[in-house]
Amino acid sequence: MRREEARMGQEPLRLVQFTRSFHIGGTEVQVLELLRGLPSSYQLQVSVLEDAGPLMGSLWKLGHSPVAFPLKGSVAQPNTVYQVYRMAQWLKAQRAELVHVHDFYSTLIAVPAAKLAGVKVIVGRLDLSHWQGRARRAVHARLTRMADHVIANAQAIRNLLVSEEGLPASRVSVIHNGLDLRRFDARVREGLKGPLPDTGGAPVVVHVANMNHPVKRQEDLLLALAMLRHGGTTLHAYLVGDGPRRPELEKLAAELGVSDTVHFLRHRTDVPAIYTRATFGVLCSNAEGMSNAVMEGMASGLPMVVTRVGGNTDLVLDGERGLVVPPEQPARLAQAFSRLLSNPEKARGMGRAARDFVARELSLERMIRLHDALYQRVARGTGA
Q: Which segment of the chain is annotated as a signal peptide (predicted)?
């Protein structure tokens, strides 16, 4: 008997998805996929801190108009308490059974509100808290412990929660992000939305990440490219993403003498099509959760060179689906690039294995199925 058939006659599970906003980001995309894919045995509501962002149109098309509980600046003010009270009252009025909250700032509102309203709550922990100071990490850890269950999207995050924050292992599940390969392939077929720099047939590495925070370590990529060039190897790089650090990275590329082969593409909406023009991909962060950029590179059939941090090793098995190097070691990054360039057949085999892994382990259907089972178990004590 299918799960959907087994639920016939039951009341829909009243579930609230709560995220900060619907600006472009991996978390927001995953929330949309859950809203799109969960079965009809749910009554879904959406709440946000800020009802804004370019993905709002996609949310409206799914028939959802989010309820906002704005923080309005610093969290250390009476408005935060007021929003907690407002949400608690709203949850009671909606007769909500379960709240799934996806980010730090939304957790500040959702967890105490759910507890006041007598509603079960699941906290999503989607990174290693590398961007938080000590005080925020302590608050996040305390609120996470108050939750009925916690979802980590990478094993490294689960390890942190259990070993450093003291959560019981039984209250933390790992559910990897999901990727809709059919939709991804359709975006590939749509082609480029704008021109790409001409590389004259030279190999290309693609790096997709924002330029807001040093954690992404684009400078290590630039240093690796300069090392290769000094050794006589020309490798072009497409850097997709933008942010306040871009001018200093452009300056560094000029100082290293690689400005002619490093191309800053800024924000692009055609990343799948850009990946198809690459020889391989790279993500060289010194901290990371479960990277959608790496998943999309793998879905493109590329071998990915990644650093041994966070969820990267959940995705890339060294030597089989790409190469894994230590963080903040540009020389090791350059060696990995050389290894792929010197053995193109082996590199293509890694890319095929990466694509197969995404299809097998990171399907959207699998991600939704695991969330569905967990929601049923936490809210109603049923499900596998």
A: none
Same-domain pairing of 82 and 212: no
Q: What is the pLDDT of residue 4?
A: 53
Provide the domain limits for residue 355: 182-361
pTM, whole model, 2 decimals? 0.86
- What is the predicted pLDDT for the residue at 133? 81
Q: In what order do the strands lie in the sheet with 204-208?
A: 262-266, 236-240, 204-208, 280-283, 304-307, 322-325
Q: What is the pLDDT of residues 262-292, one digit of tens each?
A: 999 999 999 999 999 999 999 999 998 889 8
Structure confidence by residue, pLDDT tens digits, 346-356:
999 999 999 99
Specify the number of domains making up the chain. Answer: 2
62: which residues sit within 8 A by CB, 6+ positions away? 32, 35, 36
Cβ–Cβ under 8 Å, residues 45 and 96: yes
Q: Are residues 173 and 222 in the same domain?
A: no
* Residues 345 and 376 both lie in one domain: no
SS (H, E, C) 124-172: EECCCCCCCCHHHHHHHHHHHHHCCEEEECCHHHHHHHHHCCCCCHHHE
Residue 8, pLDDT above cutoff 70: no
pLDDT for res 380:
94
Which strands sit side by side in the sheet containing 120-125, from one edge to the other?
67-68, 42-48, 13-19, 98-101, 120-125, 149-152, 172-174
Interval 118-139 mean pLDDT:
88
- 231 and 100 in a single domain? The answer is no
Contact 258, 330 (CB under 8 A): no
pLDDT at 58: 94
Same domain, 158 and 265: no
Nearest to 126 by CA among 99, 149, 148, 156: 156
